[in-house]
Amino acid sequence: MSRLSSTDTPVEEEAEVVESDEAREALLAKIQTELGDAVVGSHLSAGDDLWVRVDRSAWAAAGAYLKTGLGFEYFNFLSAIDWKPSPFGRDMDAQVDLSLGHDEASEIDMAIEQGVAGGDTRFQVFARVNDIVNGLGVTLKADVPDDDLSIDSWVTVYAGANWHERECWEMYGISFEGHPGLRHIYLPAGFEGNPLRKDYPLLARRLKPWPGIVDVEQMPGDDDPADAAETTEAAE
Amino acid sequence: MTAISDREQLSYIAAQAADARVNVEIETEGMTLNIGPQHPATHGTLRIVAKLDGEQVIAADPIMGYMHRGYEKLAEVRTYPQVTTLINRIDWVGSFANEVPFILAAEKLMDVEAPPRAAWIRTILFEMSRIANISLFLGDMGLQVGAVTPAFFAFRDREHVLNQIEAATGGRFHPNFDRIGGLKDDLPAGWIAETKRAMKKIRNFCDEIEGLLQGNEIFEARCRGIGVIPADVGLSYGLSGANIRASGVDWDTRRDNPCGLVHNELDWKVWTHPDGDSFARFWVRLQEVRESTKMVDQLCDGLPSGPVMAKVPRIIKVPAGEAYVETENPLGVMGYYVVSKGDLTPYRVKIRSASFNNISITPWLLKGVYVPDIVTILGSLYFILGDIDR
Questions:
Q1: Which of A67, A115, B205, B264 could form a disulfide with B157 if both were Cys (CB 3.0 to 4.6 A apart)?
Q2: pLDDT tens per residue across span A114-125
């Protein structure tokens, strides 16, 4: 697991990887047995990490089973992700962003492409819990459909989910059923919009191109930026 | 009226008060006390609205966001190397440690490994950030209970560490030194010897703090048994770092999941304390600084030679994927969940900062405590506002 360590013998590292891999496979099997069809996707990165995507209806049950059934007592974080790409482009590498007033949406690929463990909807809620005794962590994901942006709250399972769900509600507009008080946590009470949605514009960037864009311009002597791998310096 | 002695008068008052308690149903009216956002105990701009019944807190509601800078949104429009400039400002007294998990997550996605020397120097600077950060806590914890001297000592001795960080990175508070694939530079000449001297001074500082505070009657009275967090509650709130280790949970990411750093090649100990009170949190942090100085000494002795930068493209495009990397930062576990779509910029960065989870326990923890104890409890939980608000 210590990817960058220098003096670990290779044999030890190999053994470590295999061991934790088995643990994660067993864990995934247990979750699948308990939740049955509610597990709609999973991804296991050998010796590294585990993602499990569950159905929205089984979100609370999955949390409860992980905590009480599998010893994942440690609540790490909960958040969401918006898979629909920003209509404003990606700013750094999109040349369209350098000129103002063009038809932005037409030039940008708006295809939704979900990440690890798949997905069907624009929004996904994801949370991470840890089993600190065995040193395992698992990231749970759940699809949240556009027409009903809500999911069960975890507050009764993991008390710490309270603030994370408030943040998620404020930033993405996803409501959590059974949450004791969904109100703004960072933003002022009357704030409109959900800033972390991709279609929420970062106004400063819309008005003025980021001066840092010069960093990715071609340097003298580079024929093709993609082939500039021989330079050891990071682009800074 | 005959003159009565002080003693008699006192016992009379006490009897009256006892009568009042027994015979009269005392109606107390609730009061709302607003603590902060500008308050010395809030390390920035945390505001706590406390509902009081007499001197007792019946409900506490922390209100933050005064310093919300939206780093998760801003990171989406910056290249990976530019993001480190932002995240330096999350925990601003241990800045280098903020960069490490993000860089490690990016390296994990790119499948790049930093050379051994870079990993070792990273670990040195990581631990020095911890010393700079927690030594400030050790001074501040005294300040919370009225002892001003430790604060001066802390600022005096933290300087030795900051000087070394500055000598190596060029930045006292915001090094911005970590790069995908290694470090910006190697260490300057003579740095190792000077660092070891600084570590000796920090160990002296720890002894001084221990002498000043531990066993001090006022300090013990204000901290022992105050703000007790049971282990299971702490875990379900996601507490980390010294806050959870002070509740007897033997968990340290540096030892249990040493992703990219070299702590497991060193001889050190994870300290825990069974009590879970304010004093335990102070005590665990004090021992942690000592362990860190030992670690830095060992790292300086065993520093391998070689380059400090792996071969990486000058223009960094991170392959599509998702990675979560967490490290044991000064304030607790800090992690970055990085989602990449193969662009120059991350698609989504979820910053899991330690203080946000650590402080989320306050509505539970402050219920029933007395007003003066709010200060020591908040002080002992030790948060940095930038780490809450992000």
A1: B205
A2: 777 777 788 889
